[in-house]
């Protein structure tokens, strides 16, 4: 295959981790007979610095003409004082919206070699952790009407609109149920706040209707506050969690830390068809940018998701994942997952070691 990728190196550690991911993809291409063509596009803080916009029109055009998007990280304190519509994070929302990417898939798996890095007690994590959070990406508070207004003697008032349609809920629900059908446990937990929020009540109604179409899948509802508690009390109970945009944003970060480090977790943003945007779930970490300290594994594993989910390259994806597992089993660590007896590597050296194991 000849695969054309739009690449957002982005801000902070983004360029460093993308470099290592491209090295891995190039080795996969060499090993399996594929070629990868990378076109860098501007998005995030670097785009603001160069063009005054977090997401230039040219970047969207190139992304749409590509087979998928590989993204490093965007944002940082340098741009924190900008108004909301000019913040680097608007580039992510814009790309998801423009590219029709409504489903964010975030697997959280605890590698055996990193069991000691898990902050949970051994008696909690002993049963392992292998769950996936399916987060709706283009609705909810992040995309609703928002603004500020004066409210008499109370001064300025801010508001954000939360809304979901039946179609949006059913669409993300089907992604979760179809994903569960491909997994061993075949279980879906739908997370909402139906005891308080009207959108959650509609969410629950639609999910219940949908569950009837998948009799082979075990289904349950769970309130978001309970889910947050259960993720640290008994994470092994979960298989596939499906939830709305903001809840998914928060819960997936919580789930990531139960695996030892947010630097280990990949993600994909998918729409209709095979096109996707692939990125680590962590941020730009400007405090360690340019110091060869960042963990590139989440970005590399995002590439494995891309190979499998967008291009159907199952063996290639497995090769990447196996190479990462081998490196971890051999005791190699970046600083964020370093443990006693581990062999400390920098960003570049970790990428080289994974390539070596391919």
From TrEMBL:
Residues 4-354 form the Isopropylmalate dehydrogenase-like domain. Keywords: Amino-acid biosynthesis, Branched-chain amino acid biosynthesis, Cytoplasm, Leucine biosynthesis, Magnesium, Manganese, Metal-binding, NAD, Oxidoreductase. Its cofactor is Mg(2+); Mn(2+). Its EC number is 1.1.1.85. PROSITE patterns: IDH_IMDH. NAD(+) binds at residues 76-89, 283-295. It comes from the Bacteria. Substrate binds at residues 96, 106, 135, 225. The record marks 142, 193 as: Important for catalysis. One of its GO terms (molecular function) is 3-isopropylmalate dehydrogenase activity. Pathway: Amino-acid biosynthesis; L-leucine biosynthesis; L-leucine from 3-methyl-2-oxobutanoate: step 3/4. Binds 1 Mg(2+) or Mn(2+) ion per subunit. It catalyses: (2R,3S)-3-isopropylmalate + NAD(+) = 4-methyl-2-oxopentanoate + CO2 + NADH. One of its GO terms (biological process) is L-leucine biosynthetic process. Its main location: cytoplasm. Mg(2+) binds at residues 225, 249, 253. It is found in: Cytoplasm. Catalyzes the oxidation of 3-carboxy-2-hydroxy-4-methylpentanoate (3-isopropylmalate) to 3-carboxy-4-methyl-2-oxopentanoate. The product decarboxylates to 4-methyl-2 oxopentanoate. Homodimer. NCBIfam families: leuB. Belongs to the isocitrate and isopropylmalate dehydrogenases family. LeuB type 1 subfamily. This is 3-isopropylmalate dehydrogenase. It comes from Monoglobus pectinilyticus. The gene is leuB.
């Amino acid at each position: 295959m000849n695969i054309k990728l739009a690449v957002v190196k982005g801000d902070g550690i983004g360029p460093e981790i993308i470099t290592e991911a491209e090295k891995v993809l190039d080795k996969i291409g060499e090993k399996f007979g594929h070629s990868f063509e990378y076109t860098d596009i501007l998005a995030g803080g670097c785009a603001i610095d160069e063009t005054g916009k977090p997401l230039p029109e040219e970047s969207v055009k190139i992304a749409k003409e590509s087979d998928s998007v590989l993204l490093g990280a965007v944002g940082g304190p340098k741009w924190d004082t900008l108004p909301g519509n000019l913040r680097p994070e608007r580039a992510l929302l814009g790309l998801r919206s423009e590219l029709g990417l409504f489903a964010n898939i975030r697997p959280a798996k605890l590698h055996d070699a990193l069991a000691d890095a898990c902050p949970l007690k051994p008696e909690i994590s002993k049963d392992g952790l292998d769950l996936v959070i399916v987060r709706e990406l283009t609705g909810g508070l992040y995309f609703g009407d928002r603004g500020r207004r004066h409210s008499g003697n109370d001064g300025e008032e801010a508001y954000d609109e939360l809304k979901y349609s039946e179609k949006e809920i059913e669409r993300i629900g089907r992604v979760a149920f179809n994903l569960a059908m491909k997994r061993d446990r075949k279980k879906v937990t739908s997370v909402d706040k139906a005891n308080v929020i009207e959108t959650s009540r509609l969410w629950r109604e639609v999910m219940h209707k949908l569950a009837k179409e998948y009799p082979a899948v075990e289904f349950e509802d769970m309130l978001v506050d309970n889910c947050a508690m259960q993720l640290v009390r008994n994470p092994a109970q979960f298989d596939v969690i499906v939830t709305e945009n903001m809840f998914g944003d928060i819960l997936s970060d919580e789930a990531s830390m139960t695996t030892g480090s947010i630097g280990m977790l990949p993600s994909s943003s998918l729409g209709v068809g095979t096109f996707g945007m692939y990125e680590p779930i962590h941020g730009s970490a400007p405090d360690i940018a340019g110091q060869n300290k960042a963990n590139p594994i989440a970005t590399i594993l995002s590439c494995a998701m891309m190979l499998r989910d967008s291009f159907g390259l199952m063996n290639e994806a497995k090769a990447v994942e196996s190479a990462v597992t081998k490196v971890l089993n051999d005791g190699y660590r970046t600083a964020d997952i370093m443990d006693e007896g581990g062999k400390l590597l920098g960003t570049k050296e970790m990428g080289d070691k994974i390539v070596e194991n391919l």
